[in-house]
Amino acid sequence: MLAVAAFAQKTQAKAPFSLTLAAAHPQLRADQRSRTYVQLTLQGERPTTLQKVPLNLCVLLDTSASMGGRPIFHAKAALKAIVRRLRKEDRLSLVTFDGRAHLVLPPTDPRQAQKIRDAIHQISTGGSTALYAGLQMAAAQACSDARANRIILLSDGAANVGPMHPLDFKRLGRNLGQSGISVTTLGFGKSYDEDVLAQLAHQSDGNHAFIERPKDLAPLLERDFTHALTIVAADISAKVRFAPFVTPLRVLGPRAQIRGREVLLSFNSLYGGQQKRAIIEVQIHGHKAQERVMLAVAQATGYGKTEHKLRAQAFVSLLDPTTHTRARVCVVNKGVMEQVIIALTNSVAKIAVKLRDAGRTKEAQRACYANQKTIAGAVEMYGLDYKGRLRELWHENGEYARQMYDWTTLRKRMRQDQFNLDNN
Predict the structure, then answer these.
(1) What is the pLDDT of residues 181-225, one digit of tens each?
(2) How far is CA 272 from the centre of its chain?
(3) Is the separation of the CB atoms in 20 and 265 below 8 Å?
(4) What's the first-to-final CA gap in the chain, in angstroms?
(5) Burial (0-12, 13-18, 19+ Cβ within 10 Å), 114
(6) Residue 201 to residues 144, 161, 299, 416: CA-CA distances in angstroms?
(7) What is the pTM of this model?
(8) Is the backbone of residue 293 left (phi > 0), alpha (psi -120 to 50) or beta?
(9) Is residue 144 a contact partner of residue 179, using CB atoms and an 8 Å limit?
(10) pLDDT higher than threshold 70 for residue 167
(11) Which of 141, 162, 160, 159 is nearest to 150 (CA)?
């Protein structure tokens, strides 16, 4: 009868980001099949001026008729504010769409301030919503090998010209992501399609936010723009290879591929201070007693001013439980386990959305209340900190359950929250 103890080792490298690999259960019984979780974490370092990656930004603005009045007024004001923060090495372009796409401003040096202000001033509203065509035109502008490429999309409606199915935008988002272009999607009001905008952002490794009131746009746009200006690494690829006695089952969080014993992940960018995580559920099979053996090795490659390659390993010790107490076998890595609980309850919250969409309101509410029980049980069982994110998540699930009857607004808020938990 054996037990497995996993220890995380962090790479030490002179790079603008770090890579860490850690297991949720440092000790497990190895005389039987058992499941645990392994967390890969990328951490962006606080940037210096020399580390920041130049930005190629394309703002894609919905100018259909419904954007008239306060929405377009606040959008133009927010655009003027962020333009003042661009650096000389950055580039800005502007695309609008109504019934078709319009190139208002090609990639431009921000020092041409009057040209940019004139382009923003001439924007007007009217017509339908050709979102797909707008994205295609924006992608043509936001394509540079020397800069971090980002599209910021502002829209208040669903596509009604050209491709409009969520799967069309999922595929487009994946293609943009693979081309190194991140899409941040900002949805105004209650009429936009949150599934489309969330998929676009998720597949391209961007951000997504729900804007209930036009005046909320400026701070949200400012936050995303601030992050974009502090990007320290771009085009990051990571691979986790597990030992022969470990089988990866699924990845909670970012987009990933499982190929045999390998898990492949990609991230378009990482800003200073940002953490991006992937929780990998694995099954551990029996293994002979051994003092130290590798559980998994992770490799990551990313580009700042130069290429950086990092490596991290997680090791296991195979222990005989007859010489160790049961309490020791139940030890967990609290930091990783907290992220596991967050990821698991987020998966259940997605099921709650599907249940409510199908009219099964009571079942959706029960799913949210079940999340509260999961959080409370984990806090008690593992001694997790209940003062931070877990407490917020407990309250959020209670609010979800109580507000199920105001579904239009709540659905957008839940999809935004689920996106944030998956991608940060």
Answers:
(1) 999 999 988 889 999 999 999 999 899 999 988 788 888 888 888
(2) 15
(3) no
(4) 39
(5) exposed
(6) 19, 20, 25, 11
(7) 0.88
(8) beta
(9) no
(10) yes
(11) 141
